[in-house]
Amino acid sequence: MDVKMTPQLERVLRVFLEDVAAPRYGYELMKAAKLASGTLYPQLTRLEHEGLVASHWETPTEQSQRPRRYYRLTGEGVRVARLEIAQLSQNRAQGVPGTGRPATGGTA
Fold it and tell me: CA 17, CA 81: separation in Å to the nearest integer?
């Protein structure tokens, strides 16, 4: 699987890897990864298309709630995310040009 690692994608994957069993909804991911919806949702769509993320809609339990779409890494997604993050960390430790510092904040 060929994943083009960007600082924004790194932030999304790190959020997912904090608890791989926890489904995350879009707004929660936006806040945790500090990304705008226009950056986050295309990434989620691409990851889902590649089989690295699965999603499902949750039906609201109360009438006042809106439906939420939840995302989580697939087994392959967990494997790829861990490998990509490990490779990125190793490249940074070795001073590989273009890997920069870890993404810690800001918006896309």
Answer: 8
Burial class of residue 34 (count of CB atoms within 10 Å of its CB; 0-12, 13-18, 19+):
middle
Give me the phi and psi of 58, to 5 degrees please: -105, 130
Single pTM value for the model: 0.82
Are the CB atoms for 14 and 43 separated by under 8 Å? no
Q: What's the CATH number of domain 7-60+67-92, 2.60.40.10, 3.30.43.10, 1.10.10.10, 3.30.70.270?
A: 1.10.10.10
Dump pLDDT digits (tens) for 74-97: 999 999 999 999 998 888 888 877
At 56 the three-state DSSP class reads strand
CA 14 – CA 34 distance, rounded (Å): 12
Question: Domain limits of the chain?
Answer: 7-60+67-92
Structure tokens at 15: 């959020």
